[in-house]
Amino acid sequence: MNKKGFELSATVIVLLVITIVIFMGSLFFLKKFFYGAEEIKGEIERSTQEQIENLLRSGDLVAIPLNKKTIKKGNGAVFGLGIRNIGAAKDFTVISNFFRAFEIDGKTDIPADPYYINDNWLLYSEGPYKLDSNELKLVPVSITVDHAIDDLGTSTKAGTYIFNVCVFKGDIAIDCDLEMFKSTGFPEELYNKKVYQMLVEVP
Hints:
3 helices; alpha+beta; 5-stranded mixed β-sheet; globular; 9 strands; Immunoglobulin-like; 4-stranded antiparallel β-sheet
């Protein structure tokens, strides 16, 4: 038997096995991710969809009926955001950003890193979401309270953590920055010309 040919065949077999293992692992994680996303969406639909639809049908263009939740460190919760389109069919983009945090006294700022919070606490899909005239859309926004508030590992303090939520018309990327909007004015693309907020109470 040709030794080089045997070594080549063995190498090919090893590579093939590794490829199959990686492929199967990828399928597992994809299945787990999509199952988790559907589970989150289902939870929102069961608990808040009716409230959101009632608000939207009564005239609201954007609704977050339960915008304040108590979440312990290491745990998470899902907020339900509803959008109703009026007029012609159009795309909508959802942007949520960490705004600020206060200690329990309601006065002392917690110096949390907004970039860290956005990357490690927030989970949602920006879209764009294409809605027909008078169509309603439910968007789940998940917030998991991490044990840290920055890359240095500074421990998460008890208090109130505030997140801004904006719904923009079109497939665009604009920061949901309430302070900037106060000084420059609300952008034309901001649906309903309003910034909404989600409050997380960390005990």
